[in-house]
Amino acid sequence: AIDVLSMGSGASSDVVSSMSVEDLDEAIYDMPAQQRKQLLAAKRTELDSLQVSVEVDEAKLEEEAEDVQAIASQLMRTLENATPALDIATDALHKLDNAALHGLAAFAEPPEIVVNTMRAVMTLMQKSPSWEAAKKELRDASFLSHVQGFDKDSISDATLHEVDKYTNDPNFTPALAASMSPAAGAFCQWVQAMNNYSKVVR
């Protein structure tokens, strides 16, 4: 019979693990009662340690799952707020007409909020972010429909970074832009809503 307990603890574990059920039964049966008790006590200790380890891992996994669920729920709430804001901003663009756009383009010396609003719009549209380029687009009959139909999920991280130069300005507000031009107010609102939505879905 194999004297399992006469081996080191690591060796005895390896031997026991490699033994067939029949050999293990025979080895245990041939053991003196005291050795049998010692082996069973050692195995019971190993099982208890394994159970504690499993319970700790399960608790950690449950905690991580709760954290992930909390983050997901927060993102969903934020997205639910961002999407209606974008819908409202897009609806405001639909209320504009060519006369409003031509009026915006007619500024000989446009206020800073107007210039920055159109630069931000042009940046999102992947066009040259200059006032001169914006004026040319404003006189294009198809420009407004292009903005209204803009793919909100196509904005790159690099573009968002460029847009931040305008949206991070505390004076970049739809109210201020609208006080200069209703069209500028609508475009400013659209830029902010598009920027917020894009960051939420990142």
Number of helices: 10
- How many strand units? 0
Give unreliable regions as ranges.
Answer: 7-13
Instruction: Give the overall shape, derived from the CA principal axes.
Output: rod-shaped
- Specify the structural class: mainly alpha
Name the average pLDDT: 82
The first-to-last residue Cα distance is 66 Å
Largest beta-sheet details: none
Rounded Rg: 35 Å
Question: What is the element string, with H for helices and E for strands?
Answer: HHHHHHHHHH
Strand content: under 5%
> What is the percent of helical residues?
over 70%
Q: How would you describe the overall organization of this protein?
A:
It is a single chain. The chain is mostly helical and 202 residues long. Helices cover 76% and strands 0% of the residues. The chain is rod-shaped and about 105 Å long. The two termini are 66 Å apart.
